[in-house]
């Protein structure tokens, strides 16, 4: 078995609650390829859940030493260091996380909490404000005393593709069990009132230079109409652009069916946002939809999920 296979199997065991089995697979993956940072990162995650704080810190550190630029590795090591009362080390890690991902609201928030614990009220207030600006649900300008437990309950950073892809998933979304009969769907999520999201990979080949053509094809398909569109509605495109995220080109496309008599898209159902890129010559696509939920706050939450996406080579 390759180290990648072992890492994937370990991740599956961890999701099933078999942390010891997961760690054993990550151990084997490290022996198979000691220079791969992914098994160290994932073993750190498992150790953190097992409350092995020192072990988690050691593995996050090793992943970083091996070249990981995953901002979640720094953020999560910061959490572990904070748990170990290493406030200066935690702040340094949160700082590196926001350097790698300037819109990483969770890292700003964590740094604010740690600065406040150190008595740096001015620094904490500045970070709370930045967190509130990036993610109003995560923190507010008045929030100056949220606990680490409350912080953790607000959501989690999901790691996919051997730790190369990370997405911040809020607490009102949950990850569905994997369907091994559908290997091209690498993750599915369920949200409030039927909202859902998926991460797809490898449905067909896609080179970076084909991304613009792919976007035009999908827009054309949707413009023709679908049976699932609500009756007496028309499709309104909110975005259909090629954007650059962390140096990588993505197709960022979103739409909503506008119901007859409604002008404000935010109160309409089926708000859907997609991010598509080429990853190792294959399509990688992330999509989240509000389904029939018409709450504008859910649409904002979906945008925060999509804005949190980070993908390494």
CATH class wording of the largest domain: Mainly Alpha
Examine the coordinates and then state which fold CATH places here, giving the name of the CATH topology of the largest domain.
Answer: Serine Threonine Protein Phosphatase 5, Tetratricopeptide repeat
Which CATH-level-2 architecture of the largest domain?
A: Alpha Horseshoe
The run of helices and strands is: HHHHHHHHHEEEEEHEEEEHE
Model regions low in confidence, pLDDT < 50 over at least 5 residues: 139-154
In CATH, what is the homologous superfamily of the largest domain? Tetratricopeptide repeat domain
Radius of gyration: 20 Å
Backbone structural class? alpha+beta
- Main β-sheet description: 7 strands, antiparallel
- Gap between N and C termini, in Å? 22 Å
How many β strands by DSSP? Answer: 10
The count of helical stretches stands at 11
Strand arrangement, major sheet: 3-4-5-9-8-7-6
User: Fraction of residues in helices?
Assistant: 40-55%
Domain count: 2
The average pLDDT value, as a whole number, equals 84
State which percent range the strand residues make up: 15-25%
Gross morphology is globular
Give the oligomer, counting copies of the same chain as homo and different chains as hetero: single chain
């Amino acid at each position: 078995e390759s180290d990648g296979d072992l890492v994937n199997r370990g991740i599956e065991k961890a999701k099933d609650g078999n942390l010891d089995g997961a760690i054993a697979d990550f151990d084997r993956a490290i022996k198979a390829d000691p220079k791969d940072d992914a098994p160290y990162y994932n073993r750190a995650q498992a150790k953190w859940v097992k409350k092995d704080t020192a072990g988690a810190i050691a593995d996050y550190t090793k992943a970083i030493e091996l070249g990981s630029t995953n901002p979640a590795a720094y953020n999560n090591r910061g959490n572990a260091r904070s748990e170990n009362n290493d406030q200066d080390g935690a702040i340094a890690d949160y700082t590196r996380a926001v350097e790698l991902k300037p819109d990483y609201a969770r890292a700003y928030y964590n740094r604010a909490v740690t600065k406040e614990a150190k008595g740096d009220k001015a620094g904490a207030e500045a970070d709370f404000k930045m967190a509130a600006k990036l993610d109003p649900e995560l923190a507010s300008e008045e929030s100056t005393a949220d606990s680490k437990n409350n912080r953790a309950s607000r959501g989690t950073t999901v790691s996919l593709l051997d730790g190369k892809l990370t997405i911040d998933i809020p607490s009102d979304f949950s990850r569905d069990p994997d369907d091994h009969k559908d290997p091209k769907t690498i993750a599915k999520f369920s949200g409030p009132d039927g909202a859902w999201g998926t991460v797809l990979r490898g449905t067909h080949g896609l080179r970076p230079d084909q991304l613009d053509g792919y976007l035009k094809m999908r827009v054309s398909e949707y413009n023709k109409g679908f049976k699932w569109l609500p009756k007496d509605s028309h499709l309104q495109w909110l975005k259909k652009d090629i954007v650059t995220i962390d140096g990588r080109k993505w197709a960022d496309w979103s739409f909503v069916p506008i119901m007859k008599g409604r002008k404000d898209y935010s109160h309409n159902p089926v708000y859907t946002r997609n991010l598509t890129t080429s990853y190792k010559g294959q399509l990688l696509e992330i999509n989240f939809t509000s389904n029939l939920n018409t709450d504008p706050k859910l649409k904002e939450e979906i945008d925060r999920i999509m804005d949190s996406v980070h993908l390494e080579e």
